[in-house]
Description:
This protein is α+β, with helices and mostly antiparallel strands. The protein has helices spanning 13-19, 42-55, 70-82, 86-107, 114-127, 153-159, 187-194, 221-234, 237-245, and strands spanning 31-36, 61-67, 132-137, 142-146, 171-177, 202-204, 211-217. The protein has a three-stranded antiparallel sheet with strand order 5-7-6, covered by helices on one side. Strands 1-2 form a two-stranded parallel sheet. The chain has a two-stranded antiparallel sheet with strand order 3-4. A hairpin with a 6-residue loop joins strand 6 and strand 7 (211-217).
Amino acid sequence: MTMHSEQPQEPHPLWKASREGKTVHQPETIVMKFGGSSVADAAHLREVAILVTQSLPKGPLVVLSATAKTTDALIEAAHRAETGDLGAALGLSRDLQMRHRDIALELFPKGLPAVLARANLFQVFSRHQINVDLVATTESSVSCTVDGNESLEALLKDLAGFGTVGVARDRTIVAIVGERIKYSPGVTGRCFGALQEINIEMISLGASEINLSFVVKKEDATPALRALHAALITNRFFQQAVARSA
């Protein structure tokens, strides 16, 4: 059995004052809620921004709900989808996306903030029904992989509005799959060491605990697999690393 002692804690000032019968003055909380017609377009949103900015010294709690008629459109889209009219439902969804995109572009004519830009970027892939496999991002760029058999002409035309777009073809994803890779010391180091003679163009780990992926040129795929097999499987390094982290 272990024992420890703690210093008695002072009661919270508000509770202490209430216990002693004193009047407690708590700071007021300002709640500012905007929605519907008050955020219907870029002009109205600028007015909202001015009001919020003027209230910042008071530490307001700002609540922003849907723009005008957005909720009605979402409900209508849900009803259309429920009755099997998926074309109409998707059409309403696209109209909403374009309306919000137009508002954002009017508010940020020099370019959307990075988070908004990336969200809109992946909506373009969705609109063209092209699945993204791997994603790697930096502050100023986004790299991703798609199926090599996809037709990309229309997609690239839409993506051009976000910046310079480049396509590297004939690439292969090489993936290492194993339990608790993310938490196994030495695994990533051994992988990079094994691939030191191969040019790695993209790396994806993210939140996955079981998958570490590399993108290499198609002709480098087989040498990469052999090098990784020798480094992780032949000498049983991977099994040992997972056992140590378990």
